[in-house]
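Troubleshooting: if your tokenizer reports a length mismatch, compare your output against this known-good record of 325 residues.
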Amino acid sequence: EEFHFQHLLNRNIEWLQKMNIQTRKFQQEDSERVVSLLSECFPDNKITTESFIWKHLSKYHQNKTICRVATHEGRIVALACFNPIYVYKDGKMGALGKSKLFYSCAVQATAPDYRRKGLVTRLTQEVEEELGEGTDYLGFSNEYGVQIDKYSKKINYHIVGQYFKTIVLPLIKKDNYSFIRENSLEDIQNINSSFFQIGADTAYLQWRFEDNPKQDFFYLAIYKNAKRIGFVVYQEKRFTIRLVQIDLYDTEVSIDLLISMANYFFKHFYKIINYEYLDNLLWRKNQYLYTTFLKKPMQVYLTVKSADVTYGDPDNWLLMGGDIQ
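Known-good structure output:
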């Protein structure tokens, strides 16, 4: 399989040269044409110029985003954008508040009639050449992306683990937690976690959720024994709650916390509470046996390219659906 994959890559290089397809850095005036390409590739995502600029060119990114495009006869036919993203290394993983810069493959797209010709691979290589050796990368890949990661030595990402989706059910029990709805993500404390987490600071959270032009999010402060211990970001849809992100200051996610959340929302007339997560030991130990049959695999995988092997262990990460870039 690996030999066959490399053979296809070599054929694609010859095709690119014959077709005279050019690659270059993205320019601001490309935005509308890029949005047209993304709308063609992902029609259900309702991508607009505003949402593209928010995701890749926001002030939060401090001009560190790297985007490259492939053009043919004046048309943008492929795109690869890598956003800067900070992975926090707190608790047993390092000193409190320390973070490491990664580049996240935030979007890759190829026009339908130019696919399977190695355009994204070529753009990715050019981005990595620009960023230089020693740069760390992470991505959230689908099944096709995982195949590229598995067989292409030119990409060479490590597949860390797979995302799952599950439901947490309310139970008749004494709740050890209480919740207060808030209007914004303010006064966020440092998160002292023993896991790798993405962007666990106020600036990131405000960009990710409050500034998001495509979706609406709501926020709950979490209390235990009258002390604020963290917060949850969630979405509402009819009778369903989606837990998007849970951040706790000095403790881990527990089954008692999840059940308390389910009880809280059930009392407010929501019947289904679900969440997505990168599967690992932490989440498995916090699922009751009767809910395991509700656990469904998603076609989303965390992939990492780093010289530090600790990033390749899924048990070192704490990621939910809100972390998918």
